[in-house]
Amino acid sequence: MKTKLSLVSPLLLLMTLLLTLMTAGAAAQEGTDAYIELLRSDLRADKQAIVTEAMELTDAESQAFWPIYRAYETERTEIGDRALDLIKKYAQVLESKTPETTRSVAADWFKLQDERLKLIKKYYGKVEKALSPEIAMRWTQVEYRVWLLTQLQLASEIPLIEPVHQK
User: Using CB atoms within 10 A of its CB, is residue 51 exposed (0-12), middle (13-18) or buried (19+)?
Assistant: First the structure.
């Protein structure tokens, strides 16, 4: 499977903007939010191109797969919206962390991971039922690889929280 990861440059721009949000005031955030939405749209288009190339579907398979994929993307985007909100919340925690706010961010992060896995399982089942276990697994692998790429980029851009050392 040879896929071009043209997803990387819009992703880098998005991560840079997210870091800007982490240090910007509310007025700067409003203008940046609109630009983030444009970049997210580009990322979705790039991701769809990667999925199209990687899946190698016949015309008949495509007719069954793409409506399921679009429904998945709609639900995944909702989780992505909450992830962006969590990054903004994390930025606030970095500035004035307390044990309560840190616990809240951690709980939200765990919840997002659980929701994402539940969503993948749900749509694996739908693709398997409509097509085959092999196509469902291939989609899951492609989705996981794209997700890993984005998570690696996020992890490299978002600073680790500093520990509070007690005396």
Answer: buried
Rounded distance between C-alpha atoms, residue 123 and residue 137, angstroms = 11
Got the DSSP string for 28-39?
A: HHHHHHHHHHHH
Q: Return the structure tokens found at 162.
A: 């500093």
Q: Are 91 and 19 in contact (CB under 8 A)?
A: no
Summarised one tens digit per residue, pLDDT across range 117-151 is 999 999 999 999 999 999 999 999 999 998 888 88
Q: Who's near 57: CB < 8 A, 6+ residues apart?
A: 65, 135
Half-sphere exposure of 104 (CA within 13 A, CB side): 15
Task: Number of helices (H) and strands (E) in the chain: give both, helices first.
Answer: 5, 0
- Label residue 99 by pLDDT band (50, 70, 90): confident
Distance, C-alpha 122 to centroid of its chain: 17
- 3-state secondary structure (DSSP) of residue 107: helix
**Measured between alpha carbons, how far is 150 from 43 in angstroms, rounded to an integer?**
10
Q: Global pTM?
A: 0.76
Which has the closest alpha carbon to 36: 65, 28, 117, 131? 28
Could you give the CA distance from residue 114 to residue 4 in angstroms, rounded to a whole number?
29
